[in-house]
Specification:
The complex is a heterodimer of chains A (200) and B (135). With 200 residues, chain A is mainly beta. Chain A has a single domain, classed as Lipocalin (Beta Barrel). Chain A has two helices and 14 strands, in the order αβββββββαβββββββ. Chain A has helices at residues 2-20, 91-100, and strands at residues 26-32, 37-43, 48-54, 57-58, 61-66, 73-76, 78-82, 108-116, 126-136, 139-151, 156-166, 176-177, 182-183, 187-199. An eight-stranded antiparallel β-barrel of chain A has the order 1-5-6-8-9-10-11-14. Chain B has helices spanning 2-29, 49-70, 78-104, 109-133. In chain B, helix 1 (2-29) packs across helix 2 (49-70), helix 1 packs antiparallel against helix 4 and helix 2 (49-70) packs across helix 4. The longest helix of chain B has 28 residues, at 2-29. Chain B starts with a helix and ends with a helix. The relative contact order of chain B is 0.19. The chains are: A mainly beta (200), B mainly alpha (135). Chain B: This is DUF1761 family protein. Chain B: Keywords: Membrane, Transmembrane, Transmembrane helix. Chain B: The chain crosses the membrane at residues 12-30, 50-67, 79-101, 107-131.
């Protein structure tokens, strides 16, 4: 009886620790392939703009850690984008956005993948939520992202993440010209699309 | 001195209202003409707003001095004198400045033409004010 009580105490002490340190069962690699883009949409009091970085990124492999725990899957990996590559389809607006995003000081926009609600199904489109850390102009923000997963052909999965952010989230000031007569609005709609290939 | 500062101040107030009011309406009514101003050439952090909005008074004082110095050369009704004064200023000062600005900066013809017309209208209005209150 004495031994049993000792065992029970030991179990009570160590079980949570053991549970927290459950070995990761599997990790799945998602290789980011060609055909990716990042789009930023915004508006001023006189027009709307959409700026893109298409295919100009330093690719990486995203790793999903599947474990026995319920809850979001841990993700690791990042994509880095060259802020100088932003194209707003108007050279002056492109230059203005790069200046606003302090491209000379902080040339990279980095999206680090943190977690995913659950592992996506590969047989049909679905929407999931996840978390990313976006590093822009020297500031990093942890943000929840709405993902859309669309199975493409030949084993490619299209992952589209979108989220509204504000210039101020990253310590940036939206540009204003001519004594404030032309003003850029705070909100930006960020969307990125990754074409990923599963490599086990 | 009084003959420069008083008409200059009156013209400054009138130009302030007409210039910035006109600009405000222009941005609202013809927004496509102002898209090119989303350009890093233009100050975007608001640090020079005071300079921007004091321009009406600066040009009024300068033109008031110019009027006081050369008003005897302009003849006819106050409208003729005011318009001629505006045209002289635009030809002598504005046109060469716009010329060198366009040749040196990456700006459009529409933009530089807009600035020329803006300056011409300001000078004509100032000329009319001076011809009326300091003939």
């Amino acid at each position: 009886m004495h031994l049993l009580s000792h065992l029970a105490v030991c179990l009570l002490i160590f079980l949570p620790v053991c549970k927290a340190r459950l070995p990761v069962n599997t990790s799945i690699k998602w290789v980011v392939t060609e055909g990716c883009f990042l789009k930023v949409g915004g508006s001023t009091n006189i027009n709307k703009f959409t700026c893109e970085i298409v295919g100009n990124y330093q690719s990486d492999t995203l790793i999903l850690y599947k474990n026995n725990n319920t809850g979001p899957l841990k993700l690791s990996g990042k994509i880095s984008l060259d802020v100088q590559a932003f194209n707003c389809h108007n050279p002056m607006m492109s230059a203005d956005l790069r200046k606003t995003l302090k491209a000379n000081e902080y040339p990279q926009l980095v999206i680090r993948f943190v977690s995913l609600e659950r592992y996506p199904r590969f047989d049909q489109p679905e929407e999931l939520r996840g978390t990313v850390a976006i590093e822009l102009a020297g500031t990093t923000r942890l943000l929840d992202i709405d993902y859309k997963f669309n199975p493409g052909g030949t084993g490619i999965l299209n992952l589209t993440g979108s989220r509204q952010v504000n210039f101020s989230d990253f310590g940036l000031v939206p540009p204003r010209k001519m004594g404030g007569m032309i003003k850029t609005n705070e909100a930006l709609f960020v969307q990125f699309n990754l074409a990923i290939k599963v490599a086990r | 001195m009084k003959k420069v500062v008083f008409p200059g101040s009156i013209a400054g107030v009138i130009l302030f209202v007409i210039s910035y009011g006109g600009l405000y309406l222009g941005v609202r009514l013809f927004p496509y003409l102002f898209v090119e101003y989303n350009n890093p050439l233009f100050n975007s952090d608001g640090s020079r707003d005071m300079l921007f909005y004091s321009h009406a008074f600066l040009i009024s004082m300068a033109l008031s001095w110019f009027w006081e110095r050369f008003k005897t050369l302009f003849h006819g009704s106050f409208i003729t004198r005011g318009v001629e004064f505006g045209l002289v200023y635009s030809l002598v000062a504005l046109l060469p400045v716009m010329w060198i600005t366009f040749s040196a900066l990456d700006i459009t013809v529409v933009m530089v033409a807009g600035w020329f017309v803006y300056g011409l209208v300001q000078a004509v209005i100032a000329g009319l004010v001076f011809a009326r209150i300091n003939p």
